[in-house]
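Q: Sequence in, structure out?
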Amino acid sequence: MSVAVAATTSACELPSFGAPDPKSEQGESIFSLWQGFFLAALGVGALVWGLLIYSIVRYRRRDDEVPRQGAYNIPMEVLYTALPIVAVAVLFGFSVATERNVTDIDPEPVAEIEVIGFQWSWQFRYPDEDITITGEPGEPPEMVIPVGRPTSLNLIAADVAHSFWVPDFLSKRDLIPGVDNEIDVTPTEEGTYTGRCAEFCGLDHWRMHYTVRVVSEQEYEDWIAEQQATQRGEDGDGQISGEGSSS
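A: Exactly. Output:
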């Protein structure tokens, strides 16, 4: 029941329970699930401690009389078997619903970006705009996306497994050689957010970071025009081969 309450209550009306403030619509779904699970855990803990304290006080030894001995209490046994099953089923149901929200792909994203992870940096390709941003170890690249609109990210591993993770978005997805992975990101606030590789991929794994800059739609269009003007005539330069990494 605690999860149901959290799912139908605005996030601002509940504490965060240690989770960061989400900066994407997908992160908001995860954030609500986290709040619900935390409330459910508090409810279970309060119930267990309450029953424990009640038993200690109610059935403490008062004299030498032996209390009634009973081998079975069928109603009680049915109750404490059924309640955990119902609780787990409810938690599972909300988890599935949240997963569907997070993994749902918009058929008409505002932008499509190929996110290519390689040892040990990142490349962001905007195929429709003919723009490529390539980072180097120690020189992290920057992805620019518009606020309030879904952006489709096609995740490609050029060599070994990597993981695309922006902590402020509250979700991550692995880049696995030979596996197609695609996610949508719908930012809710403008700003610059740090991203990291969350899958150990070799000696310089710790250097695989990048930034995601969320801007208004007008700023995004201006940035696209600026990048196209800058990169015109550089077709094919700085490409990281993804052949064999994505089917």
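The longest helix spans residues 25-58.
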